[in-house]
């Protein structure tokens, strides 16, 4: 990793205009030529932005390629225009924005690091693979404190490998929480209370317990572990699992107890729910949930549950985050410009503008406290829930199939409240052994 030669302070780089720009997407790259902006009066877009470095520093020239999701391509291009206008010292660089989604970016980068984007958005489950492939530069030392202190803990953890911060958080908006009808559910803080209210009202509670994504709410909540390690090719080299344990037994018993309720329905899509008073789902279904519950629409973090051992546990699960990475550069002048641009695009002000433009939930703590975001009750509930989750890493496809099978054994009645601890532990042991077999 290159040592940064220039102190490009994150906080100073943020002082540019944040006027909203048009949405929409482009079929091909959008180019921002900084040479066209170099003569602009930087004070028009925020004079302090020029203070990120000495204006007469020679940063050289070149091209910078940026990959972002299609729906924010135009937004990103407009923000880069603002940044370049406020920083004429970077006028030698032409920035091209291309639509490459977070799900595809990592694979494309690793396939050909040299030809890939210099700055790119990616899903957090790809970070270990990108680091192993030498495709991520460490966050610039002068930006570490700002990134670490100004974003929520889950997003910072997602951007970190070992003790090193490798990426700039963009969002904290992929996870699940509770939508509920507040005229039915009087207190959403405990699973027992929610189920009791639903049963009393003859209403349904939805949660998809045969999904490897939602199912982890019980196991991670009880303290069980299931993670994988990969090499630089993305191959799975190790599985760390403690499902076959007392913690795993508590989780499986809670799933069985939930299924035994007359109110339980397996599912996680609001538009497929019937007679529902509560459902575990994500922000993508906030619109349908508002329509379903009307004036009684409400959201909360996932509830706690009382385990078979009498202890209280917080339902947990996976959290998802979008990150912005910078590719290592041979030219440290160009690297300095890339770092400054990445810091700006991931700043609180731009995160908030991105939320207003495209609905992406910010990871920046100050942006999360804005009236616009706070009034979004779904995002507020998710932000609270993400504090109890772990960032989703890479998992083999076989894991998801196996997790479905485990949940189906509960739904079908193969595992019931009458099952002995030995029978349940045997199921968990087989599950764990299969998970381990998928690695190495």
Question: Can you give a write-up of this model?
Answer:
- With 440 residues, this protein is of the alpha/beta class.
- The chain folds into 2 domains: 228 residues, Periplasmic binding protein-like II (D-Maltodextrin-Binding Protein, domain 2, 3-Layer(aba) Sandwich); 182 residues, D-Maltodextrin-Binding Protein, domain 2 (3-Layer(aba) Sandwich), CATH 3.40.190.
- Helices cover 38% and strands 17% of the residues.
- The chain contains 17 helices and 19 strands.
- Strands 1-3-2-4-18-7 form a 6-stranded mixed sheet. A 5-stranded mixed sheet has the order 12-9-13-8-14, with helices on both faces.
- Strand 5 and strand 6 form a beta hairpin.
- Helix 8 packs across helix 9, helix 9 packs across helix 17 and helix 16 runs antiparallel to helix 17.
- The protein is globular.
- The two termini are 29 Å apart.
Map the helices and strands.
Elements (H helix, E strand, L loop, with lengths): L9 H4 L16 E4 L28 E7 L4 H14 L6 E7 L2 H10 L7 E5 L3 H6 L8 H10 L2 H6 L1 E2 L2 E2 L2 E2 L7 E5 L9 H11 L2 E3 L9 H7 L3 E5 L5 E6 L4 H14 L4 E2 L10 E6 L4 H8 L3 E4 L3 E3 L5 E3 L3 E2 L2 E5 L5 H14 L2 H11 L6 H4 L2 H4 L2 H10 L3 E2 L5 H15 L9 H17 L3
Parallel strand pairs: 2-3, 2-4, 9-12, 9-13, 17-19
Antiparallel strand pairs: 1-3, 4-18, 5-6, 7-18, 8-13, 8-14, 10-11, 15-16
SS elements, strand count: 19
**Order of strands, widest sheet:** 1-3-2-4-18-7
**Which structural category fits the helices and strands?**
alpha/beta
Note the total helix count: 17
Measured distance between first and last alpha carbons: 29 Å
In the CATH classification, which architecture of the largest domain applies? Answer: 3-Layer(aba) Sandwich
Helical percent range? Answer: 25-40%
Indicate the mean pLDDT. Answer: 88
Here the CATH topology of the largest domain equals D-Maltodextrin-Binding Protein, domain 2
CATH class of the largest domain: Alpha Beta
How large is the share of residues in beta strands?
15-25%
Spatial shape: globular
Radius of gyration: 24 Å
Largest sheet: 6 strands, mixed
């Amino acid at each position: 990793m290159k040592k940064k030669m220039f102190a490009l302070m994150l906080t100073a780089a943020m002082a540019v205009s944040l006027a909203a720009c048009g949405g929409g997407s482009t079929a091909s790259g959008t180019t921002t030529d900084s040479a066209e902006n170099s003569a602009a009066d930087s004070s028009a877009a925020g004079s302090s932005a020029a203070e990120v470095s000495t204006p007469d520093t020679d940063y050289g020239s070149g091209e910078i390629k940026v990959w972002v999701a299609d729906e924010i391509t135009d937004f990103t291009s407009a923000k880069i225009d603002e940044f370049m206008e406020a920083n004429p010292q970077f006028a030698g660089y032409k920035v091209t924005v291309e639509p490459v989604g977070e799900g595809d970016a990592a694979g494309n980068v690793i396939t050909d690091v040299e030809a890939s984007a210099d700055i790119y958005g990616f899903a957090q489950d790809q970070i270990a693979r990108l680091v192993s492939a030498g495709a991520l530069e460490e966050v610039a030392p002068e930006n570490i404190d700002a990134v670490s202190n100004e974003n929520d803990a889950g997003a910072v953890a997602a951007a970190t490998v070992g003790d090193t911060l490798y990426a700039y958080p963009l969002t904290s908006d992929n996870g699940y929480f509770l939508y509920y009808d507040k005229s039915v559910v009087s207190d959403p803080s405990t699973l027992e209370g929610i189920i009791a209210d639903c049963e009393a009202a003859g209403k349904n509670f939805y949660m998809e317990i045969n999904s490897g994504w939602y199912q982890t709410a019980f196991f991670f909540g009880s303290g069980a572990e299931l993670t994988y390690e990969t090499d630089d090719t993305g191959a799975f080299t190790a599985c760390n699992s403690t499902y076959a344990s007392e913690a795993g037994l508590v989780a499986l018993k809670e799933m069985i107890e939930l299924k035994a309720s007359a109110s339980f329905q397996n599912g996680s899509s609001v538009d497929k729910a019937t007679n529902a008073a509560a459902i575990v789902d994500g922000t993508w279904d906030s619109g349908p949930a508002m329509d379903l519950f009307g004036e009684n629409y409400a959201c909360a973090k996932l509830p706690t549950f009382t385990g078979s051992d009498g202890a209280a546990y917080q339902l947990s699960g996976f959290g998802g985050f979008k990150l912005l990475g910078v590719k290592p550069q041979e030219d440290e002048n160009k690297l300095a410009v890339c770092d400054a641009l990445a810091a700006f695009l991931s700043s609180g002000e731009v995160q908030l503008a991105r939320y207003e433009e495209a609905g992406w939930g910010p990871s920046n703590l100050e942006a999360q406290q804005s009236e616009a975001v706070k009034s979004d009750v779904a995002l507020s509930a998710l932000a609270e829930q993400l504090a109890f989750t772990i960032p989703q890493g890479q998992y083999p496809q076989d894991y998801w199939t196996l997790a479905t099978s485990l949940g189906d054994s509960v739904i079908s009645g193969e595992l019931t409240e009458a099952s002995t601890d030995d029978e349940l532990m045997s199921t968990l042991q087989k599950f764990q052994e299969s998970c381990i077999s998928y690695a190495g």
